[in-house]
Amino acid sequence: MSETIGKAADAGNAGTTSDREIHLGPLENYIGFYLRLAQNASFKAFKRHTGEGDLRPGWFAILSLIGGNPGITPIALSRASGRDKSTITPVLRDLMRFHLIARESVPGDRRSYALSLTPAGKEKLARLSEHAARHDAELDALVGGRKAELLALLRRIAAEID
Amino acid sequence: MSETIGKAADAGNAGTTSDREIHLGPLENYIGFYLRLAQNASFKAFKRHTGEGDLRPGWFAILSLIGGNPGITPIALSRASGRDKSTITPVLRDLMRFHLIARESVPGDRRSYALSLTPAGKEKLARLSEHAARHDAELDALVGGRKAELLALLRRIAAEID
DNA sequence: GCAACTTAGTTTTATATCAAACTATTTTGC
DNA sequence: GCAAAATAGTTTGATATAAAACTAAGTTGC
Question: Does a structural domain hold residue B114?
């Protein structure tokens, strides 16, 4: 961490700004800025947790939603998980490739299909759930008694910012 | 929005789950889940704001930090903006290409260089700042009087989750 | 009952991000 | 002072995501 200490002494230079004197300026009070920092940090930590096995962060929410809603369609998954439908396709392809989910045709709509977990998928979900629970427990510990308030605010931002 | 209503009536099917009956299950109470949703929504809205001009979301934080800290180096930018140093390089290249920033050598360290805004960069930053301020004002409106608490929690998550 | 519109899913393209590997320097420990 | 370790910056490769364009199928309005 030893930063460039003596440099600002130089004349023709406005002063090379070292780490500990950075001014965040307006960013300091921007919700959007800290929302990004917090999400990145949380996602990184989650990746570290799950990545230790053969798991993938993107799989958990999808597997969990299929597990809790057998027969769910890709478009419903997209809406429930808050991701664009075009990002669901490759995840489902992976999950199929590893035989964690099964597709069944939807009677009455040949465009769509119904998803469910295979036994292997249920096992994988169980294992992923442990990691996820541990991860969110860490977050819980950080926010202490203000979890309900934080969740309410985040839900509100997610739902109404657009 | 007319969803597939009559489908669950079919026998051999566990019931095709339509949008309005989705159970989020554990996700419902996961901070990480709503952190992602909120950040994605906020980022999308920001992109919409800035994208109307010739602006780019990634540019604002960087320009703002350079503007507030003339002489800042790429590595200090990386830390202050919370992004990996490898993501700073291409942004700086773009900003250089549009003559919004200038590089100056750092006396005493030939690996690094000092950054500053050109007059054009200052103008661009001023314009971007308006959009950013408007965006964050929307977020402020959503969180009402609980902004300080939200910021404190997000800062804490960003700083301590790793 | 057919044309127009809408919806489900996929593919393609673009952006944001991290991580690892690499080069060129600088700093540190004897 | 020199070898080893650390640091600054870049490049390359991977993943997460959205958006737009496309295909196929369903729904609606006369």
Answer: yes
Its pTM stands at 0.84
In sequence order, the β-bridge partners of residue B103 are B115
pLDDT in tens, B78-102: 999 999 999 999 999 999 999 999 9
Q: Is residue A4 assigned to a domain?
A: no
From the centroid of its chain, how far is CA A142? 17
Nearest CA-CA distance, residue A70 and chain B, Å: 7
Question: For residue A105, what are the β-bridge partners?
Answer: A113
CATH classification of the domain holding B71: 1.10.10.10
CA angle, residues A148, B156, A161, in degrees to nearest 5: 55
Which positions of strand C lie within 7 Å of protein CB atoms?
A: 7-13, 15-21, 24-28
B45 to chain A: which residues are within 8 Å by CB?
A: 161-162
Which one of A3, A16, A47 would you mutate to disrupt binding with B, by most B Cβ within 10 Å of its Cβ? Answer: A16
Element (H, E) at B119: helix B119-143
Phi-psi region of B26 (alpha: psi -120 to 50; beta: other; left: phi over 0): alpha
Domain membership of residue B72 (yes or no) is yes
In tens, the pLDDT along A99-128 reads 999 999 999 899 999 999 999 999 999 988
In this prediction the ipTM stands at 0.85
**Are A143 and B26 within 8 A, CB to CB?**
no
Of A13, A73, A158, the CB nearest to B107: A13
Phi and psi at B104, nearest 5°, equal -135, 145
Query: Which value, to the nearest 10 degrees, does the dihedral of the CA atoms of residues B1, B6, B7, B8 take?
Result: 110
- Short-list B2, B16, B58, B114, CA closest to A110: B16
**Cβ contact (<8 Å) for A6 and B37?**
no
